[in-house]
């Protein structure tokens, strides 16, 4: 394996990576370059294989004594246990739900019940996707004070120094913020923010939907009490995944059937699980393990260590590909690039405000084999705070570790052609 001089990590083997995704060998997608990964990633083969097997061999009510049912339940348990281990949490601290929006909605109702009648406050940001903003803001209708932690209107930066005065009086019980925004894409200092909140007596709820595709979190390192992300953006099926640590999980009121109230991973999932999709989520752990084994060999490593190593591989590759695209966009005077100009400070999700509506530009790019989108991407609040015309929206170009340099080069060429038109 070749080594990068700066990190001493192996260079990501893109042939191996792309071989794990059937989309890249699909005739229907040949000549198409996927730059809307922030809306959902391609699904890796281990997930597809597990989903196929479940529907063909295990599609019965799980956890009964007969073999098909026993195996189905065992696969669901495996998914929870292996993903929890990758992130360094206890198995019952990981819950599955129909989506991150649904998980946040249920969680907000638990917080409403918890804080009802108390002289308490929560903090939200205007950098978030609406899923981690709107449900919390509605708690103001129940008499819970909602304080807004605001971004810089020029850069979109969320300054931890601006959080301190919001926490000063000790009334705040929950701070909700993104690991990174799906518009601004700056990687927020999660560990620092969580430490600030903890020191002020508050829990934290981190929206990781826009960051987790670039590496699953190490929860001990971040220190968040709740971390939410979407499996369909981390190469898996359409499930919402919620890491909910025991301290806050025991504090909040049960939202499930009363007889499930003592089971942490069931307390905040009132709907029955999608058996097949939950089981298929183990394929995401298969994928991380396959990347680790291919790049680092058979040396013993804990699940967290494997996850950390793979996370580093992904980020090294993404940073290298993001830099020239940032340089190209920053050099143009007919658009506004939102978020940091330094590739290492951001996820490879680039939103640009143009001198024209974004959707027709995305449509024109499709004629060049570029799959991208234009609109507000449920980031109405950050776009409004940044002064972006919501009627025009933004062109969003997003990729992950399976993207190639040739694809980025092609994107730059296509942008050059379309933006001159």
UniProtKB/TrEMBL annotation:
UniProt entry tagged with the keyword NADP: no
Keyword Transcription regulation found: no
Residues covered by the Aminotransferase class V domain: 34-244, 314-411
Signal peptide boundaries: none
Keyword terms: Pyridoxal phosphate
PANTHER family the record matches: CYSTEINE DESULFURASE (PTHR43586), PYRIDOXAL PHOSPHATE (PLP)-DEPENDENT ASPARTATE AMINOTRANSFERASE SUPERFAMILY (PTHR43586:SF21)
Protein's UniProt name: Cysteine desulfurase
Organism encoding this protein: Gemmobacter aquaticus
